[in-house]
Fold this sequence. Notes:
Order of helices and strands: HHHEHHEHEHEEEHEHEHEEHHHHHHH
Distance between the termini: 37 Å
Number of helices: 17
Oligomer: single chain
CATH topology of the largest domain: D-Maltodextrin-Binding Protein, domain 2
Number of domains: 2
Largest sheet: 5 strands, mixed
Helix content: 40-55%
Number of strands: 10
Radius of gyration: 20 Å
CATH class of the largest domain: Alpha Beta
Amino acid sequence: MTILESFSRRDALRLMLNMGVLTFGSAGLISPRQVQAQEPSNAFVLGHFGSANPQVLGKAMGTYKNAFGTGVKTDFVTVSAGSQVLAAIAGNSMDICNVGSSPMVVGFGQGVKMSMVYVQKYITDSECLAVRKEAGITELKDLKGTTIGLPFNTSVHFALNAALKSAGIAANEVRLLNIKADSIRAAWKRKSIDAAYIWAPVLNDLVADNGTILLRTGDLADSGLLVFDGIVVRDEFKRQHPELVLAYLKEYARLCDMYENDPKQVVDVLSPYLSLPPETTIEYMKTFHSIPAKELATDKWMGMPGAKDTGVLRTLRAQAEFLKEADQLPVVPASFAPFVDSSFLAQMI
């Protein structure tokens, strides 16, 4: 029996303990008691992060209820870290949510019974390497001998590792400090770091405080490396209710279209709902990049069902190899194709 076949709800606690060394986002894990106490729900449990994203827009407007039709009960669960998503899915207390590709890889490697069914967003300019203007860093090679702060074993750690390799900089030629996202600002103000690879809104604060952007994660696409958040679905729920998964993804795509074509309505809904100034909501929207279904269906991204060599699969493998080198993943799966389900995407184009 393989690790993927043997994972059960009893393994949820062990999964969370194993993942306690990881730093996915800004919050901790769901407690063991929460996961162990959960039983499969009779509702469609939708997870989402608390930012101004399309899932929260749909929640605020009540549009998911219309998309699923009458008789479908939905519950919304707010999360703040990829580790929470994995623990909840492993414990049968969440059916669908977005999660970063790095924690997603950990979940696949740990045997969490879930599938990636869509790309929630393409990370381009929402995660960047910011440097101090006075540090004299104008290109990647200037990073030699500098101190860089970032949360380890996250998408930004993966991206920085790729950037350093592309510039021919060895790991021992820079000093990397493992700093949580909410502590980056303080380290920057103390001038204990020369640079930081981090996401918005922390990124915006660093740029405003005498910083400049040296590298955007989206710049790595030139080398074929895509960094993204994916939408994952609990496998048992997917088998039992494929029609709800498809309805969710169709509604998600429609909400993403609103970001592009009706930004005023998005701001008008989300700013009061999240108690955010409109300008803050607008700044978030500027760095949120969704991918249309037709483009997702190409081999640059997810490809069609049965595709074996796609941008998503290559990125998942690259991240798995990175996490293994960092001793955060014991084994790199032989293939990530079994974990990426494009069948719903194929029905959307």
